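Aim 2 progress update. The chain analyzed this quarter is reproduced below.
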Amino acid sequence: NNKVLLASSNQGKIREFKKIFKGFDFISQEDLGIDDAVEDGISFFENALKKARHGSNKSGLLTIADDSGLVVPGLDYEPGIYSARYAGEGASDKDNRDKIIDQLNKKNVSSLEAFYICVLVGVRSDLDPIPLYSVGEIHGKISTKSLETDDGLMNEILVGDQFFDARNFPYMTFTSTRIVRKSDNTGHVEGELELKGKKRPVIFKAQFNGEAKHPFTGSPIIGIQAEATINRRDWGLSAWRAFVSNEVTIKIAFEASPK
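Predicted structure tokens:
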């Protein structure tokens, strides 16, 4: 039996799983009229496991569930499992982001390290004693002082207050919120790019370069190259408009590995 229940009512998530796990027949709990599980755990793993066991109990199928969110260690690991309702029940993404920014302001800092985490759990039955699970994290933080153009004068100009203002804003940070694989080799990476204290959503077109085993840990890894074009003025980088294009292309390369 290749039928698998995804303990979610998100049809977009169903489409993504079908693309990744070819040969399996994924259905959502909504398709079977299954209600949502009570997520009263205190960790991502507990909530994902509760959803998986609930779905399997109601359907009798192998069930996969996930729980994910944003973690900021410098904010006592908030918002964590409360990411979707950090600013209260019914809060929008903007409300939740604004609360995080407010918390940063209270600490008198312009940025802190953060990561997005996703825990995926699979159970063969609601009483499965050995659940399958995987944990993935995505981190992104870059120091503006590391900028290098092979031109000393240009380096000074770009890290100066007309552009990146590295003295007051030492980091540019990209926080990934979602990776979508549209085919074996293509997809996109969604997230927020922070420059000079301003956060804006960015979508990178991604190229998946194949999977291999990490040479030291032996764990599976996949290489990803991604590219996006932004308008620098959206982040307040408006100097030298007569000489420097507003459109700036950003290229990143990284490896992703489940833990």
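The longest strand covers residues 198-213. Helices lie at 11-20, 44-59, 93-106, 152-159. These observations will guide the mutagenesis experiments scheduled for the next reporting period.
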